[in-house]
């Protein structure tokens, strides 16, 4: 469970987050949409304890990430570019990451996690230098599987992915949510947000303007709501 309680953050005299409140329950996927500079990545950075809030709390399973270091053990973060160690192959990267988390993992466990992500067998022993963004992401997601992460934070995971890779990504994330992970994803991708999310928050200028029940929305309604809220305009699509 992920909870933002009255989270506020300023840089110098500029308020970039203003009293943010939301929860992401186990098995739930929440997407944050918003214009550039709305405060989405700052929100993730507060949950990662890379930044400290001026006021409010970022909680993982009820523990404040700022005062409880071990709450980060439950979390895996996938940045927009998953780089890892370029010279290592997928298996060695995962062994190394696991060792940093004091986890003992066998090759069988690593391969089982990579099987879940769909990373091809033939690619696993090649160095990450030769990997596409989608393949790197699968290695990052395999780490979340190995670590049995309860919380996944994703920053613009589908930017630069082709449609097939996006579809594969969506399937893997759905599987992780079905296994009980609480997932918070920052994105500019309406299709991905609409396909995956249970709820969608639209942010602007540090505020969560609305929290929508995605299952009640068509993608057109979502897009229109976004544009109405962010720029005061809506998009009218012609039927073809
Ligand atoms: N370390 C920092 N120091 C000063 N200002 C910052 C810092 N980090 C972010 N900001 C500012 O905070 C605001 C919110 O930035 P943030 O990166 O959270 O937005 P975002 O919604 O993720 O945008 P984007 O969609 O472009 O990634 C922006 O005005 C940004 O310039």
TrEMBL record:
<dbReference type="InterPro" id="IPR003593">
    <property type="entry name" value="AAA+_ATPase"/>
</dbReference>
<dbReference type="GO" id="GO:0005524">
    <property type="term" value="F:ATP binding"/>
</dbReference>
<keyword id="KW-0067">ATP-binding</keyword>
<feature type="domain" description="ABC transporter">
    <location>
        <begin position="2"/>
        <end position="230"/>
    </location>
</feature>
<dbReference type="GO" id="GO:0016887">
    <property type="term" value="F:ATP hydrolysis activity"/>
</dbReference>
<protein>
    <submittedName>
        <fullName>ABC transporter ATP-binding protein</fullName>
    </submittedName>
</protein>
<keyword id="KW-0547">Nucleotide-binding</keyword>
<keyword id="KW-0813">Transport</keyword>
<dbReference type="InterPro" id="IPR003439">
    <property type="entry name" value="ABC_transporter-like_ATP-bd"/>
</dbReference>
<dbReference type="Pfam" id="PF00005">
    <property type="entry name" value="ABC_tran"/>
</dbReference>
<dbReference type="InterPro" id="IPR027417">
    <property type="entry name" value="P-loop_NTPase"/>
</dbReference>
<dbReference type="InterPro" id="IPR051782">
    <property type="entry name" value="ABC_Transporter_VariousFunc"/>
</dbReference>
